């Protein structure tokens, strides 16, 4: 896998029927290792180890219904009251972070109403705060600290 612009970590990878799988700490099982999953696992590690997000309050591949269609958010971190705090949309490293990616996470956040959004392809990361009252978006220099 490609080296990312995220901290390295000691991940567990194994082969099943000649295909790579990575151990997901949140789901506590091996999942198919795709380029997007590589980014997702690095983001999860970053949130857990560098920003002290509680493991029990992060969900990977969570479902949501949007316009009567089932979708999946890559990563959602919840606050201590159980409300969405941060949504992360992960893309494979070779995928450019275009307006359509930002539109995708904005649609998901229409349901979740999280105050923070992150879009990452593992190389480039965009973090922003959302004021749902004024609809203002403020880009941040770093991932939001967990409160």
From TrEMBL:
All copies of domain Type I restriction enzyme R protein N-terminal, residue ranges: 35-144
Gene3D superfamilies: 3.90.1570.30
Domain of life: Bacteria
Pfam families on file: HSDR_N_2 (PF13588)
Record protein name field: Type I restriction enzyme HsdR N-terminal domain-containing protein
């Amino acid at each position: 896998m490609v080296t990312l612009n995220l901290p390295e970590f000691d991940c567990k990878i194994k082969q099943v029927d000649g295909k790579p799988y990575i151990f997901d700490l949140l789901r506590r099982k091996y999942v198919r290792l795709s380029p997007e999953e590589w980014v997702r696992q690095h983001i999860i590690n970053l949130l857990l180890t560098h920003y002290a997000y509680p493991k029990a309050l992060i969900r990977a591949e969570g479902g949501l219904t949007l316009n009567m269609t089932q979708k999946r958010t890559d990563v959602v971190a919840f606050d201590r009251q159980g409300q969405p705090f941060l949504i992360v949309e992960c893309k494979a490293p070779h995928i450019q972070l275009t307006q359509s990616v930002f539109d995708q996470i904005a649609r998901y956040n229409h349901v979740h109403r999280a105050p923070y959004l992150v879009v990452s392809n593992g190389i480039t990361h965009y973090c922003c705060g959302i004021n749902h009252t004024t609809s203002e978006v403020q880009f941040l220099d770093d991932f939001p600290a967990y409160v």
